[in-house]
């Protein structure tokens, strides 16, 4: 078996780190959304402002009231035309955790959570695929 070059080692370390990073992100959202689905309470929220991302992407900033306290939820900027979909002052359902009302998500986000798992799972697959090929080529043959 030949020794790995420095560039090859850096390549595999980098992609291994990215695989762990994406796994951690998807795991966080998986457990958060499962907890919101099982323990969450639904309340109304109002669009008070927008956050802006690259291009024409914008997302609503929502305020909601729980036990007399006002909380703010910033939806990720992944929506094109967020201002037309979520007009200023419009009401939307939001799910929050009674144990920590600052942990919240829009109701539609909870219902479509499977799309995120598919995205992160496919990224993880394509990151780990070169590692599997390398291991097969250099260690199992």
Any key phrases for this structure?
29% strand; 141 residues; 50% helix; alpha+beta; single chain; five-stranded antiparallel beta sheet; 4 helices; 5 strands
Nutshell version of this structure?
By secondary structure, the chain is α+β, with helices and mostly antiparallel strands. The chain is 50% helix and 29% strand.
- How widely separated are the two ends? 10 Å
Beta content comes to 25-35%
Specify the helix fraction band.
40-55%
Query: Secondary-structure element sequence?
Result: HEEEHEEHH
Biggest beta sheet attributes = 5 strands, antiparallel
How would you describe the shape? elongated
Low-pLDDT windows of residues = none
Mean residue pLDDT: 78
- DSSP E strands, number: 5
**Helix/strand/pairing class, anyone?**
alpha+beta
C-alpha Rg (nearest Å): 20 Å
Helical segment count: 4
Q: How are strands sequenced across the largest beta sheet?
A: 3-2-1-4-5
Work out the oligomeric state of the chains in this entry. Answer: single chain
Itemize the secondary structure elements and their pairings:
Elements: H1 6-39, E1 41-52, E2 58-66, E3 69-74, H2 82-85, E4 91-97, E5 100-106, H3 107-111, H4 113-139
Helix pairs in contact: 1-4
Please describe what this structure looks like:
The protein has 141 residues and is α+β, with helices and mostly antiparallel strands. It has a domain of 78 residues. The protein is 50% helix and 29% strand. The protein is built from four helices and five strands, in the order αβββαββαα. Strands 3-2-1-4-5 form a five-stranded antiparallel β-sheet. Helix 1 runs antiparallel to helix 4. The termini are close together. The model has no long low-confidence stretch (mean pLDDT 78).
């Amino acid at each position: 078996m030949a020794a790995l070059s420095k560039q090859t080692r850096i390549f595999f370390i980098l992609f291994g780190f990215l695989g762990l990073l994406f796994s951690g992100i998807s795991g966080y959202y998986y457990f958060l959304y499962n907890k919101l689905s099982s323990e969450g309470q639904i309340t109304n929220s109002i669009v008070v402002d927008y956050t802006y991302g690259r291009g024409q992407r914008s997302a609503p900033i929502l305020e909601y009231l729980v036990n007399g306290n006002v909380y703010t939820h910033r939806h990720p900027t992944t929506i094109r035309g967020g201002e037309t979909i979520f007009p200023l002052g419009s009401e939307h359902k939001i799910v929050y955790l009674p144990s920590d009302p600052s942990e919240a998500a829009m109701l539609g986000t909870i219902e479509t959570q499977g799309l995120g798992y598919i995205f992160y799972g496919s990224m993880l697959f394509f990151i780990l695929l070169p590692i599997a090929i390398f291991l097969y080529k250099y260690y199992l043959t």
